[in-house]
Amino acid sequence: xxxxxxxxxxxxxxxxxxxxxxxxxxxxxxxxxxxxxxxxxxxxxxxxxxxxxxxxxxxxxxxxxxxxxxxxxxxxxxxxxxxxxxxxxxxxxxxxxxxxxxxxxxxxxxxxxxxxxxxxxxxxxxxxxxxxxxxxxxxxxxxxxxxxxxxxxxxxxxxxxxxxxxxxxxxxxxxxxxxxxxxxxxxxxxxxxxxxxxxxxxxxxxxxxxxxxxxxxxxxxxxxxxxxxxxxxxxxxxxxxxxxxxxxxxxxxxxxxxxxxxxxxxxxxxxxxxxxxxxxxxxxxxxxxxxxxxxxxxxxxxxxxxxxxxxxxxxxxxxxxxxxxxxxxxxxxxxxxxxxxxxxxxxxxxxxxxxxxxxxxxxxxxxxxxxxxxxxxxxxxxxxxxxxxxxxxxxxxxxxxxxxxxxxxxxxxxxxxx
Amino acid sequence: xxxxxxxxxxxxxxxxxxxxxxxxxxxxxxxxxxxxxxxxxxxxxxxxxxxxxxxxxxxxxxxxxxxxxxxxxxxxxxxxxxxxxxxxxxxxxxxxxxxxxxxxxxxxxxxxxxxxxxxxxxxxxxxxxxxxxxxxxxxxxxxxxxxxxxxxxxxxxxxxxxxxxxxxxxxxxxxxxxxxxxxxxxxxxxxxxxxxxxxxxxxxxxxxxxxxxxxxxxxxxxxxxxxxxxxxxxxxxxxxxxxxxxxxxxxxxxxxxxxxxxxxxxxxxxxxxxxxxxxxxxxxxxxxxxxxxxxxxxxxxxxxxx
Lengths: 418, 306
Description:
The complex is a heterodimer.
Chain A: H1 2-28, H2 38-42, E1 44-46, H3 52-66, E2 75-77, H4 81-91, E3 100-104, H5 119-124, H6 134-139, E4 141-142, E5 145-146, E6 149-150, E7 154-155, E8 157-161, H7 162-167, H8 179-189, E9 195-198, H9 207-214, E10 220-221, E11 224-225, H10 230-244, H11 259-266, E12 270-275, H12 280-286, E13 291-294, E14 306-308, E15 310-314, H13 321-330, H14 334-344, H15 354-358, H16 363-375, E16 377-378, H17 385-400, H18 406-416
Parallel strand pairs in A: 1-2, 1-3, 9-12, 14-16
Antiparallel strand pairs in A: 3-15, 4-5, 6-15, 7-14, 8-12, 8-13, 10-11
Chain B: H1 3-11, H2 16-50, E1 53-54, E2 62-63, H3 67-75, H4 77-109, H5 115-127, H6 130-141, H7 146-152, H8 168-193, H9 197-205, H10 210-238, H11 242-247, H12 259-268, H13 273-296, H14 298-301
Antiparallel strand pairs in B: 1-2
C-alpha cells in the first residue's frame, strides 16, 4: 500500500513536471515554426516595422509590384528601427530566416557578413544597376561588390519655417547658402521663445556631419574612420558653437531621439532643422506655419549633399538566392519606386522616377533635392559605426554645452571605435 | 524527536522510507532544478565559454583565450571608469536607501492608522515599471523640465540635471532611491512588527530613552531584516541599467556609464559578445565577493536571538 502511494505520488509529480515542461516549451515556441522550404523564405522580408506607417510603406512596395504581377506577395516580419540593427544579426543566425532584408547605405559595412554580393545575380538577370543613384550604389558597395538594390536616395536638407523667417525679416535660403549667412540668420531668428535651429544629439542625424559633408569633409577615408580630419572637426565645432556660444539652439539631452528637435520645429519653437527628405511629408503638413527646404549651408555656398538611403539585400543564409533576387527586382523597378515615392514620400533611387515623387511638390523644393542628388556623396561608414553613433550621443552634450571641444570628443570616439 | 532514527539503528534495517522520500523529493525538485540548470547554470557556463572568444552576433567566433580579460583589465580605460561609477552608485544608493527606509519605516510604524496608507504610497514606485518611472523623471529633469520651470518661478536658472557631469549621477541616484525605497520600507516594517512590545516596555521601565531604545533594542532586533535589505540592495545596485540607459545614455561623457550598460552595449550594439561576457563575469565575481564578505560578517553583526 505504501509502495502504491509512493508510486502514485511519483506519477503525480512526473505529471506536474511534464505539464510544467510542456507549458514552458509552449511559451517558448509561440512563433511560427521554421520552414525548410527555400521558396517560402525567398518571398519573406526581415525589415524594420516600428509602427503602422512603416508597415504601410512596405505594403506600398508590394501593392505597386502587384500592378505588374498580381500573384506577387512578400511576408513581412521585423522589430522597430532602433532594435533592427541588433536583431537582424540574431534573426539571420536562426533557422527559417527570411531571404530578403533591408539595409542602409550607411550600414552596409556593418552588415557585410550578413549579405551576399549581387553583381553576378544582376548580370545573369540582365539588370543594369547604373540606372540607380550612383551615390547609393557607391554606398552599397563593399570591397568592390554590390550588397543591395536601393529603393530610395535621400539627400539631407535644411527645413525652414517660412512664417518665422518672414516675421524675423530673414530671406529664404535656396540652392546656395553660406554658413556665414546661416549663422547670421539663426541669430536673427532666435528671439521671443523661438530658437533659430533645433538639434538632436546624434552624429549622422545632427547638424555637424551634414555641414561637414556640405563642405566636402567626410568621416571615413579608405574604409577607415577619419573623424579627426581638420575639416570635419572644424564643421562639428561650428555646430557645437552655434549652441554653446551663439545660443541659437537648445542643447539636446543625450537621451533625446530625433523626435524631440522635430517636435520643436513642428510646434514653431525652432525656425530651422537639418533632416532627411523622409520627413518631408510630416514636417510640411504638421508644422505650425509653411515649410520650405534649402541646401545645407557650406562655407562657399555650394553644397555637397549627404545622401542616405535604404536598399533590399539578400541574406547570406538564403537557400534560393535567385528567387530572392527576382523578388527584389520586382519591388525596385522605376515604376514601383516611383509609385512608392509618390505615395509615401521617399525620394526614388532611380532618376527617371523622381518625377513621380516631385509631382505634388513645390518646384523650389524639388530643385533643392535634385541639386543635392546630383552633387551628393553617400554616407559611407565602417563596421564600428554603431559605436561611433552611440558614443557621440553620449558625449555630444558636453560639446553642445561648451565643456569639451569637437577635437576632444571626436578623438575619444576615434580611439574607442577603432 | 529522536525516536525514529534510534529505532531504525536498533533494528538494523535499511531506512527505506528515507530513500523513498528522497526519490519523491527529487521528483518534486526536478522541474525547479531543471529550470535552474537551463536558465542559470547553462547560461553561466555558456557566457564563460563565450568570454574566451571574439564572438560577433553574426558570423564565426574566433578563440582568443584570455585576451578579453587582459583587454578589460589593462587595455580599456573605460572599464575602470564604469567600474568606479558603478561602485559610487552602489555605495551612495545603498546607504541612502537604507537610511531613508529605516527612518520612514520607523515613522510609519508609529503613525497609527495612516501607516498602511503611506506604506502603500511608498511602495507604488516599486511596482511601477522602471521605464515609466525613468520617463517621468526625464520630464522632470530635462533642461526645460518641471523642476527647472518651478525654479524659474523664483528667478533661479536651474542647472542641467542630466547633462552636467557633476549632477547627472546624483540625479540617477535620487531617482533610483525614490524608486527602490518602498521595498525596504515593507521589509523593515515587517521586522519592526515582529519586535515584542514587551521588550520595548521593559526597556522603558528600565529608564531607556527613545534614542537608547532605538539604538540598543530596536536596531539589534531589526538586524536580520537590515542584513537582508543590505544584501539585496547592494546586489541590485550593481545591476543598475535602466536609469542611465533611459535618462542619460551613460553620459555626459562616461559620467553615468555603469558596468551593465557598458556590457549591454558591447554585446548588442558594438557586436562584441565575447568582451561583454568577460565584463559580465567581472561583475559576477565582484558581486559574489561582496556578498561573501557580507555573509562572513553575519554572525558578528546580526542578532538572531528573540
